[in-house]
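pinning this so it doesn't scroll away 📌
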Amino acid sequence: MISAGIYGFVLGATLIIAIGAQNAFILRQGLLRQHVFVLCLICAVSDALLIAVGVAGVGAIVSRSPNLIASIQLTGALFLFFYAIISIRRAFHPDGMELRKNGGHSRKSAIAICLAFTFLNPHVYLDTVLLLGGLSSAYQGNERIAYGLGAALASFVWFFALGYGARLLGPYFAKPKSWQVLDCLIAVVMAGLGLHLLYDFVNA
């Protein structure tokens, strides 16, 4: 049972530790030190719920619904393009660390954006519900539960480490130029993910 939990943790960590929409957003909020706890909690709990759904066997059902997947792909692509545009506009109007006071999101806005990055991104479902859920079929009973808990724990560890660890980079972001570079990188990541989703939608 312990080995199943470790395997779930390692696999979960491997899937979520990558440059993506969620991670880029949490990194920026961590640098701004705005709503970090609640946003990290939302991401981690959302992953845990989706992993639980996948481990319970729902992933197999979702994989048989191409229309549902296509709808999520198109909606997710449009949202990512929209946020990429926002990031580019922000890059041309940097305010350095003053963004902590004036350039961040309100709590409600940050939560809404975080939820959108989580549930409008088909890759989240692919990683948690389909892939992690599908691989859980190798285990039964308590081992399967341990596997799911291990994968969920990896999500909690990663998001809180990213959100609160980002503040260590604070000194490097005291200059407007650093924020310009970060926002440009975020825009590239968002646009790239959006193009990938759009490509998958067109070629579905």
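📌 and the second one:
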Amino acid sequence: MTYKDRLKVAKDLKKEGKEDWTVLVDAMDDRTQKAWGNLPNMGYLINPHGRIAQKWSWVSSSTGKARKNGDEDTRDVYTLLKEAGDLTPYSVADDPQLPLYDTRDGEWIKYGDETVTFTPAGENKVKRGAETIELKAPELPDKRAKPKTETLKVGELKLPCIVVVQDSVETWYSSWLPGDGVAKVVQDGKVVREVTDAGFEKGKSCLVEYDPEPKK
């Protein structure tokens, strides 16, 4: 199966009554499938907190109710969604520190001539350049925020962004970026910072178009 075939399967899944779902497509080396169990048609339902709410050893895009391979205790996805209530995920609009929780050593974002690095700095602490940020437990609202979304073009890549406005400052966050995920900052209508490159490892950019079938 080519990568285009996999994308078609994902699109077909969304058409079968799952338009609001985010469907992830594995890489051609099946790294996610191997890491998560290596079953042929397995599926996972992830809740807004990033936890596994339910897993299936076999899923069907047409009904979501298939019970195979001895999964007698499997509950259909419609029941789970109904019981879960609001599945809208938390975003940086709810908690600006959200992107920092999984910081790894050596992440970096470049803004023109300025490069900002990120690294863990102890329990519940992250270093952003020379600044140490204490990660506080978020006071999340009862209702999910409805932030404005925009697309920021960096070279040939289009970054999906969430725009948060506070006072006269407009901050663009992208989940594709490492660190705090800040892609752009606009103050009083003037752009004061805009991402030009970024990476999760030193010297290796993550802002390059993904080639699913590179030439050998």
